[in-house]
Design a protein that fits this description.
Strand content: 15-25%
Largest sheet: 7 strands, mixed
Shape: globular
Number of helices: 5
Helix content: 25-40%
Order of helices and strands: EEHEEHHEHEHE
Radius of gyration: 15 Å
Amino acid sequence: MDHLLLVNDGSIDLSNLIKENIIFFGERHINSSDTNFVRKIIETVEPDYVLVEGLGDLTLLKKSDKIKASKLEEDSLYYGKLTKWWIDVSLEYDTPFIGFELVDRSNVDGDDWATTFKAREEHWIKIIKKYTSSKNYVLVVCGDTHLRTISCKALGQASPLYKAFPKATFIRTPEPEIE
């Protein structure tokens, strides 16, 4: 079965996603409307894990991990305000929240957008597969641009996430930066 691509236009019936093994949501970072939609997904689907780009490489398995992380200074966090935002959201749920960002980019050969996007997304695929290898239900939250469906010079090829997870459901923001 090919992946399912939806747009969060307010008409998605989340109850239809309950049996989905993996759901990707492309967010506009620090957008309360998108975050509220993530909350609705979590409350409807009840995933076993929530993987979030914005958490950097933090692993928040238990409430105690989340409380400890919430006490960290914003400027010490990988994405600063964005990471703090997702730590705060994680505190609302018992579900483990996992950061999957490639924070050490010392082995990335180049610093242009296309090269770094490729390296990051390849890293993400490895991490995501670790959590989706069994019968876990997983919600993956990343910037919507990482769910691009077209190639472009600046960012390289269309997102490799579609090919890596062909049975996943992908939900994009109604206002993407790129198709």
